[in-house]
């Protein structure tokens, strides 16, 4: 390193929705969230796919549940890092949506691991992923754990995470967005833009019509915000949309001639359990 600082290991839970390629490129370790179908629990990204979840939900007429990262799994990984004498930063799903950060804090206490840092992303999906990659880049630059944590926490309010859902039932049954539950009683087939702010979800603008048109309208209305976006990278994150729609969204973003990297990723099982199929979001840092 040349500056005497230890390399910092970056860890996240699977709800960050980073592709295997991005995990490898930035040397990010992932702990799986759990998806619970009736009484059986499955590790997100390892034992179940989003399409299997949708099939189960349609058959059983109910939404799946999700659970935090398992204590034993987290303990095993962190014990290994401690044994290797590494500093580690865990960046997790918003504490208002999941108990995962608390699980990692318990692991830290159990291991008496003072070089382990737990950061609440106050976001979800690639809203976490953006922070995880930024932390990993800082680690590659040789920044200390304290420097990285301070920067990630200072910048997390600049993360712009939003998405449009086709179906309200998954979000309503998940119970993490009360303003969506209120919309369930309406006869109109509304499709809200879900915004994430300070770790919580709320329903913003409501759309009507076919989902492909709704998605394109949602993206077009982000034009002013996209002109203020950090140009380094932007995510198109979806839970199973047509290639045609995804390509049109990507072309729209490319036409700005602003973004160095435009990543298209599919949401994993944990996030898909709450948003349902045909959801799409564009997520980025404000510069």
Descriptive notes:
The protein is α/β, with parallel strands linked by helices and 287 residues long. Helix content is 39%, strand content 26%. The strands form three sheets. A six-stranded mixed beta sheet has the order 10-9-8-13-11-12, sandwiched between helices. Strands 2-1-6-7 form a four-stranded parallel beta sheet, with helices on both faces. Strands 4-3-5 form a three-stranded antiparallel beta sheet, covered by helices on one side. Strand 6 (87-92), helix 4 (100-111) and strand 7 (116-120) form a beta-alpha-beta unit. Helix 3 (71-83) packs across helix 4 and helix 9 packs parallel to helix 11 (243-254).
| CATH architecture label of the largest domain | 2-Layer Sandwich
Order of helices and strands: EHEEEHEHEHEHHEHHEEHHEHEHE
DSSP, total strands = 13
Gyration radius over CA:
19 Å
Q: Outline, from the CA principal axes? A: globular
Main β-sheet, in a few words? Answer: 6 strands, mixed
Q: What proportion strand?
A: 25-35%
CATH topology tier name of the largest domain:
Hypothetical Protein Tm841, Chain: A,domain 3
Count of discrete structural domains = 2
Oligomer: single chain
Distance between the termini: 28 Å
Q: Give the rounded overall mean pLDDT.
A: 92
């Amino acid at each position: 390193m040349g500056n005497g600082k230890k390399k910092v290991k970056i860890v996240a839970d699977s709800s960050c929705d980073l592709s295997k390629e991005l995990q490898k490129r930035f040397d990010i370790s992932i702990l799986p969230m759990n998806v619970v179908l009736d009484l059986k629990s499955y590790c997100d990204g390892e034992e179940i796919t989003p399409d299997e979840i949708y099939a189960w939900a349609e058959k059983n007429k109910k939404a799946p549940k999700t659970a935090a990262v398992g204590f034993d799994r987290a303990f095993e990984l962190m014990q290994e890092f401690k044994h290797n004498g590494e500093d580690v930063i865990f960046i997790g799903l918003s504490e208002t949506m999941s108990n995962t950060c608390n699980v990692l804090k318990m692991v830290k206490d159990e291991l008496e691991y003072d070089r382990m840092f737990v950061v609440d992303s106050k976001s979800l999906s690639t809203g976490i992923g953006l922070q995880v990659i930024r932390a990993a880049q800082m680690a590659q630059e040789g920044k200390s754990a304290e420097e990285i944590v301070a920067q990630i926490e200072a910048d997390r309010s600049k993360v712009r995470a939003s998405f449009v859902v086709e179906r309200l039932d998954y979000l309503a049954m998940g119970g993490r967005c009360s303003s969506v539950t209120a919309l369930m009683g309406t006869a109109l087939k509304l499709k809200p833009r879900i915004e994430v702010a300070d770790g919580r979800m709320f329903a913003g603008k409501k759309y009507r019509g076919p989902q492909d048109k709704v998605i394109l309208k949602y993206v077009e209305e982000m034009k002013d915000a996209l002109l203020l976006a950090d140009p380094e990278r932007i995510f198109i994150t979806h839970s199973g949309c047509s290639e045609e729609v995804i390509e049109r969204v990507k072309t729209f973003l490319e036409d700005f001639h602003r973004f160095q990297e435009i990543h298209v990723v599919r949401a994993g099982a944990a996030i898909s359990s709450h948003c349902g199929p045909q959801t799409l979001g564009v997520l980025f840092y404000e510069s």
